[in-house]
Write a sequence for this structure.
């Protein structure tokens, strides 16, 4: 099974005799790698990502992200961002890549906050949707965000989906930009890498000005 994976990803699934290497990856990184592998094995062709040992969430980078979000989707209401979160995330990805000069991976999964799973659908049900080409439209419980090569994430819609669970700064900035392993009380749980899953099951609406 692992031979089906590309070399850059296969190495994560080969047992290592170096005990320290088993604990080198953070929680989010391990879950993201698993999502990449799952996507490849299901024929979704996610983009490769070279992991970089840097942190992008500097004050200047955060300002650039906020400016791009304000310019591109700042006019959208909370209701529209929540309803069109898959399309909004896809629409801002290229603009943010230009602002940060780094590739961003469209990521799908769920969020766990204070022990509560949000936008969660078991992976078995998601795989069934893909296999049967079902079109659940807006009814599928799934979340979308962007992952940087540092495994930091940019989430542009959680504040709209769950305003009562978002911090004041997140609601004010209409986004979140930091490493998931550093978030108290919240965990991002990737299930798919790339946007082909939501395209294939028919729930990604392209940005049309809304």
């Amino acid at each position: 099974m692992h031979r089906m994976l590309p070399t850059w990803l296969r190495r994560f699934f080969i047992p290592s005799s170096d005990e320290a290497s088993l604990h080198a990856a953070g929680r989010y990184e391990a879950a993201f790698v698993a999502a990449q592998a799952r996507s490849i094995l299901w024929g979704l062709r996610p983009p490769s990502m070279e992991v970089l040992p840097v942190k992008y969430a500097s004050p200047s980078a955060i300002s650039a992200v906020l400016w791009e979000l304000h310019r591109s989707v700042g006019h959208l209401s909370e209701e529209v961002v929540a309803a069109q979160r898959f399309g909004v995330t896809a629409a801002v990805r290229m603009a943010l890549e230009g602002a940060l000069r780094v590739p961003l991976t469209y990521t799908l999964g769920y969020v766990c906050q204070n022990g509560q799973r949000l936008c969660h659908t078991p992976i078995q049900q998601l795989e069934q949707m893909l296999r049967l080409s079902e079109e659940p439209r807006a009814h599928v419980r799934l979340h979308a965000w962007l992952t940087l090569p540092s495994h930091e994430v940019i989430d542009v819609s959680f504040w709209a989906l769950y305003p009562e669970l978002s911090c004041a700064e997140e609601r004010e900035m209409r986004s979140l930009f930091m490493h998931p392993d550093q978030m108290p009380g919240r965990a991002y749980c990737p299930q798919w890498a790339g946007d082909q899953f939501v395209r294939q099951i028919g729930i990604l609406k392209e940005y049309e000005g809304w």
Observations:
- Confidence is low (pLDDT under 50) at residues 5-25.
- The two ends are 43 Å apart (CA to CA).
